[in-house]
Amino acid sequence: EVQLVESGGGLVQAGGSLRLSCAASGFTFDDYAIGWFRQAPGKEREGVSCISHSDGSTYYVDSVKGRFTISRDNAKTKVYLQMNSLKPEDTAVYYCAASQRGCYGLGYNKDDYWGQGSQVTVSS
Predict the structure, then answer these.
(1) Residue 5 pLDDT more than 90?
(2) End-to-end CA distance of the chain, in Å?
(3) Distance CA 7, CA 19 (A)
(4) 59 forms bridges with which residues in the sheet?
């Protein structure tokens, strides 16, 4: 059974930090790009970051560049999103997703995998 389980969310003050984890199982982790998405109430889902499986290339949406860092540990089949200098506008449910097709188009393929999400709330 394929599983992506997010953890590490919570409530933090503006300027603080959180580290999200995405624990994967049930598929060949090394063959998949893993990304993070977020969705705030009343807003569209937004791609935040992605790390490729081929060469470890990383990608970030402009609004988080310099503040968020994505990494992966293939031995532990986990992906992390270190979030620093958090802002109230970062408040959202954060989801991890996996795609065998790479970071391009991640989250929009029918055979992509999704986690259940982890709430991040940043207070001002």
Answers:
(1) yes
(2) 40
(3) 9
(4) 50
